[in-house]
């Protein structure tokens, strides 16, 4: 049996397994089966903790429920940071991902804040299929158009809308996720700018669909809103699951993202029950 912990940040939920003591028999197929909400445990992302090389407290591998691997996950970074803080008693830990080291800290009130690093703004780095200005993509889906794109390690495109009220973003999300301009697909944000310090955001995640919150998506939204002149460098971003506090720091170009984390339950599963 393999023990797991079910965690979430604002309802963006994760199965977390610990492969630090020994590697676990988890193929993408098995991860997809475990991530199924009806036939498995269910989650937005499947998180595997691995032993890091020197310089970080843990290596975090991220899979989507379709079995694909993601380069970044802000809410899981905060959940895993909390776990490491509970293990070590420290208020600062470093979570390593395939895209680099993410320092995290515990703030007053239990908020966990992750330094998600600098955004990538060049078209090759999002990536987009061809050279263009990443603040305006020629994507027109009728009800929404003209998104901005950036990478937080993983690809994001943000549509700015007058209001989320009545917008069928769950139908538009998959069209944008699979648009030919986005060869690695992308996480798709629908952002209603309430004021320069306050944004409402709905997210259609690559490989996962609609989620209650997306940390890297909130980072990308602040970056894209700021580049479009719609927001300052700090904002509260309200997602369906609740608010995240964002800052795109001027001094070092890093994006900081803070919010709550929670454990829902602990459990165990028999890997042989799921296809290998
Ligand atoms: N929920 C995550 C993002 C998952 C991104 C994943 N869907 C991808 O394919 O990049 C977050 O809090 O940042």
UniProtKB/TrEMBL annotation:
SUPFAM superfamilies xrefs: Diaminopimelate epimerase-like (SSF54506)
Homology family: Belongs to the diaminopimelate epimerase family.
Any GO CC annotation of this UniProt entry: cytosol
Active site: 73 (proton donor), 73, 214 (proton acceptor)
Superkingdom of origin: Bacteria
NCBIfam families associated with the record: DapF
EC number: 5.1.1.7
Keyword annotations from UniProtKB, A to Z: Amino-acid biosynthesis, Cytoplasm, Isomerase, Lysine biosynthesis
Annotated binding of substrate, by residue: 12, 45, 64, 74-75, 154, 187, 205-206, 215-216
Major localisation: cytoplasm
GO terms (BP aspect): lysine biosynthetic process via diaminopimelate
PROSITE patterns noted in UniProt: DAP_EPIMERASE
Pathway, per record: Amino-acid biosynthesis; L-lysine biosynthesis via DAP pathway; DL-2,6-diaminopimelate from LL-2,6-diaminopimelate: step 1/1
Site features described as Could be important to modulate the pK values of the two catalytic cysteine residues, chain residue numbers: 156, 205
Localization in the cell: Cytoplasm
General function of this protein: Catalyzes the stereoinversion of LL-2,6-diaminopimelate (L,L-DAP) to meso-diaminopimelate (meso-DAP), a precursor of L-lysine and an essential component of the bacterial peptidoglycan.
Pfam families (UniProt xref): DAP_epimerase (PF01678)
GO terms for MF: diaminopimelate epimerase activity
Reaction(s) catalysed (UniProt annotation): (2S,6S)-2,6-diaminopimelate = meso-2,6-diaminopimelate
Protein name, UniProt field: Diaminopimelate epimerase
HAMAP family per UniProt: DAP_epimerase
TM segment ranges: none
Subunit-level organization: Homodimer.
């Amino acid at each position: 049996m393999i023990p797991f912990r079910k965690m979430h940040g604002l309802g963006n939920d994760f199965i977390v397994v610990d492969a630090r003591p020994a590697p676990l028999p988890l193929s993408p197929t098995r991860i997809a089966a475990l991530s199924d909400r009806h036939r498995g445990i269910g989650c937005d992302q499947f998180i595997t903790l691995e032993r890091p090389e020197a310089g970080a407290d843990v290596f975090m591998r991220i899979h989507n429920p379709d079995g694909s691997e993601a380069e970044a996950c802000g809410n899981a970074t905060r959940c895993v940071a909390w776990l490491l803080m509970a293990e070590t008693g420290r208020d600062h830990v470093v979570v390593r991902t395939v895209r680099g080291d993410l320092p995290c800290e515990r703030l007053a009130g239990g908020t966990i804040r992750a330094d998600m690093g600098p955004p990538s703004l060049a078209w090759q780095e999002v990536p987009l299929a061809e050279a263009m200005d990443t603040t305006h993509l020629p994507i027109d889906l009728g009800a929404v158009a003209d998104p901005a794109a950036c990478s937080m390690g993983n690809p994001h495109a943000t549509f700015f809308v007058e209001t989320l009220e009545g917008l069928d973003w769950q139908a538009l999300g998959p069209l944008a996720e699979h648009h030919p301009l986005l060869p690695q697909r992308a996480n798709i944000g629908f952002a209603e700018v309430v004021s320069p310090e306050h944004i409402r955001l709905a997210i259609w995640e690559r490989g996962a669909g609609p989620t209650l919150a997306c940390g890297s998506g909130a980072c990308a939204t602040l970056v894209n809103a700021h580049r479009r002149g719609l927001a300052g460098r700090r904002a509260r971003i309200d997602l369906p699951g609740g608010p995240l506090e964002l800052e795109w720091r001027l001094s070092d170009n890093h994006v900081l993202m803070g919010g709550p984390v929670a454990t829902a339950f602990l459990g165990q599963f028999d890997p042989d029950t799921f296809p290998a």
